[in-house]
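Deliverable D4.2, example record:
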Amino acid sequence: MRQSILFSKTQREFPKRETFINAKLLIRAGFIDKLSAGIYTFLPLGFLVLKKIEKIIREEMEKIGGQEILMPALHPKENWEVTGRWEEMKEIFKLKAGKKEFALGPTHEEIITPLVKKFIKSYRDLPLYIFQIQDKFRNEKRVKSGLLRGREFLMKDLYSFHATKEDLDRYYQKVISAYFRIFERVGIKEKTYLTFASGGTFSKFSHEFQTECPAGEDTIFVCKNCNQAINKEIKNDVKSCPNCNGNSFEKKKSIEVGNIFKLGEKFSRPFNLTFLDKDGTKKFVQMGCYGIGLGRLMGTVVEVFHDQKGIIWPKEVSPFQVHLIFVGKKEVKEISEKLYNELIKEKIEVLYDDREKSPGEKFVDCDLIGIPLRMLVSEKTLRENCVEFKERKTGKIKLVKIQRAKDFIKKYYAQ
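Output generated by the structure prediction step:
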């Protein structure tokens, strides 16, 4: 991608009235545009990051047997009346089409349960794992956190269906492992804790995944013995660690990046989702649900990985692998053009700053955008028949022969 034709542009100043760093940096660097409080457009750079995150999540869901579908975002009122949540859930956006009422889907239990009822008849149809990546709509009252809390947001929700509680328990552990693989790939695993939270249906707790961050809206208490975390909401009810019985905790600010619930029969009973078991008896299906907000995950990555100059993208979610910059006159630009075309042929993702800007402006934008590798071509590097690579994360600089540049990039991303 040539930066001269990139739709979005960087801004010189941080946006006014934004307090969270993810909103400040993503708007200023040209990744997102704010339409209204809690509603954002993902511009080309931001959409590339979002698709990288989506790819990671999709791959990990498929590894644990998930089959992807896409459910409607527009929900009939009657589905929500079955569970009583039409009146109970205050965050629902409601609208009318003639005499018929609808909700803009804040979640999809009321849609997935009657859907799978059409296909589950006996124990032979179980277990079943269905997921989607879909827009959600919630009438949130507090939307000052950038991508961390929105009124419209993209979410992965996985639903599992089981014949027994024991099978649900086994799959629940598989999802926990898959979530940690996702967080490892996006770069935040070391700062992310499996956290006991309220909201369990037939178990005492549900679980959240909380990422340590000073700007976090949540507070967790982390067991100093086993690293198990407990959400502040239930800390008064838990005197010792539910995992190891330890009683020494460290208080941390955090951001919720995922949640998982054992729903049990909470939704299968009102929708009469049953199956015929091996012994010929009719039983209710056991359900679980597992969510990750893609935009929230993107915002969390920025909150965790940035400095005073801008964003520092982890490798797997960076919009491009390398940011190519030239500083100099005609000969330098000609060689940069050649290098750009060679990188494209090698299927290396490259953002090429071909703009006629000052070196200072280019360097500032490069640090702001935060691609892991900067590749500089200048009269000084060409005297050595080299290009200069600078790692955004560490600031380390290395001169590499021009003919070995593409191999250097590939090796860097293979590490």
